[in-house]
């Protein structure tokens, strides 16, 4: 079966409060289905997959396959220039956080990718591959934030803001590269995975919640507390726990799981060489937390392991047409907060591992500018695989979109996208050998627009409106030409050197949004824990060009304090707008003036020029 190459994005609005008198709104791009995942906590392989062996996994069987996917940061924004490794091959993500690795040899049962980006813990996503076909994965990176320091000679304790802790005994660490004893300060970076935020947890966790227990049997984990930890020295060198020593970790139990949390559960570490969790010891319940000892650091999870069986089904509409990109959620009947999720592939097929010996509910959703449950069926698993055959649901008519994309010289492009907006949902259709091929289901609101982007040539066309119809929609020849794709934010503080942020190289997030009424947000957010400067601000005045705009709130790490603080002008600063494009186009302008640090009340002169893509 074929795996869809299409990346699906929905841009959602989030809010970040940075001073008491006003809030600056940050727009968070997120992967489509984020709202559905509120009830689909456990990963059902976020790509389409073939059945896996539910007992002892044979990781030696390898296949050639293609892997493509989308990498985002903690806010859901695309991460550009992240390094993605699959087997012996590697690549970097583009401006949209997308990557492609072709013809790579990986384990059939547990292929996986590793994603590295400065300021973040390494990200991992594990999957079941299909020989000579493509697998699509999504990874949301976790900020590597220092939570405190411990003196190596005396040992000590550090705590995360959300209640986890790491305890190191005296003289317990060595330099990882040399195994030599370390005697300075131990810088502890840690992240407690937020299981109360099901969306975030399901995308950030390493692997796919499959692991091997002490008997080497494959299990799906039910997590009660997952923690990432990294130790570094004063010079930034990686540290590790010394042989014969143990650290102690404590993780709070999510409030929804406290009542059924066992007194003792297995403790699992993530095996970064195999892409699976591995049982290593136990952790003990103490009040509303679990505490256990560990002999090394990366990722740890206190979790129970449940046997799995294979599941497969094909989803078709009432005309018996196979429907791809339909969202499937399989939940526990007695606990809708625990489940698995996936999209169907181009043949309408969904398959993977589900809980054995459990009463489950299969739910099928459409995504026409929102979410709509169109089919639901209860079923109970045993110790045998489940094949539900062909399921017919009220999915509407099939819609296909095709077209040919050329550059300014009418040459088919090889590195580009066509952005397609349907009923407020944004789809990114990759251009393959100059062509796009896309299919979805018909919605009641089919008012659409599209924009062709030639990343390789740094050019894009103009946004075009059209109405989709059921059946075939041929956009003809689309030219990605006439508008530069270069986005930037240039700013200086107190007549200092100009800080030049370019999409995508110097920032992990650079977007412009307009609320449809008056306010526009220009946002570049740095990586938490990494002193890369940022600049974010909002201005009013609608979409008109000229000087009829003002800003009275700026957020930047580029000021002398080095902190990401709020800076308020003494009087609103005039923002001169020279370009205000439609969605997919660019918003450009400039401003300058004196502002006051809201923490220490110092005065600073800021100058800023910008051109940022509007989402």
Radius of gyration: 25 Å
Tell me the distance between the termini: 33 Å
Integer count of domains: 4
Helix content: under 10%
Oligomer: single chain
- How much of the polypeptide forms β-strand, as a percent range? over 45%
Which CATH first-tier class of the largest domain would you pick? Answer: Mainly Beta
CATH architecture of the largest domain: Sandwich
CATH topology of the largest domain: Chondroitinase Ac, Chain A, domain 3
**Number of E strands:** 51
Low-confidence stretches: 1-54, 527-533
Largest sheet: 11 strands, antiparallel
Structural class: mainly beta
Give the averaged pLDDT, no decimals: 81
